[in-house]
Design brief:
Strand 4 and strand 5 form a beta hairpin. It is built from three helices and six strands; from the N terminus they run ααββαββββ. The longest helix is centred in the N-terminal third of the chain and has 18 residues. The protein is α+β, with helices and mostly antiparallel strands. The chain has one domain: Nuclear Transport Factor 2, Chain: A (Roll). The protein has a six-stranded mixed β-sheet with strand order 2-1-6-5-4-3, covered by helices on one side. Helices cover about 30% and strands about 40% of the residues. The chain is globular, with a radius of gyration of 13 Å.
């Protein structure tokens, strides 16, 4: 599998989890000891239980947004993704930059997001 295919699979899984908020979909994205940084300098969510709990506490409702993305960089260990999240009901648009550190099995062992409102 190419690096672009790996990050495409991962982002598609992320979007599935985003829409479902299903703990199994969320866990499938991350290694058991993964770190999820919601902001680069904020303490991360650590491990499956912490990631799932915080994800669900901060969840968007299903179908409440659209997401377009493209890879900026993809290597076997690291992917950088640029995305745009739109919440049509609120007319809110966010620009996202994600850095995903990938494990050999295709799950993230570290995820950091930067986002800013348009």
């Amino acid at each position: 599998m190419s690096e672009n295919e790996a990050i495409t699979r991962w982002v598609n899984g992320y979007r599935k989890a985003w829409l479902s908020n299903d703990p199994d979909d969320i866990r499938a994205l991350f290694t058991e000891d993964a770190e999820y940084y919601t902001r680069p300098f904020r303490a991360p969510w650590r491990g499956h239980d912490d990631i799932v709990t915080n994800w669900i506490e901060n969840a968007d409702g299903p179908g409440g947004s659209t997401f377009e993305w493209q890879p900026v960089l993809a290597s076997p260990e690291t992917a950088v993704v640029r995305g745009v999240t739109t919440y049509p009901g609120d007319n809110d648009v966010y620009h996202n930059l994600w850095v995903v550190q990938m494990s050999p099995d295709g799950r993230a062992n570290s995820f950091t997001e930067w986002w800013m409102e348009e």
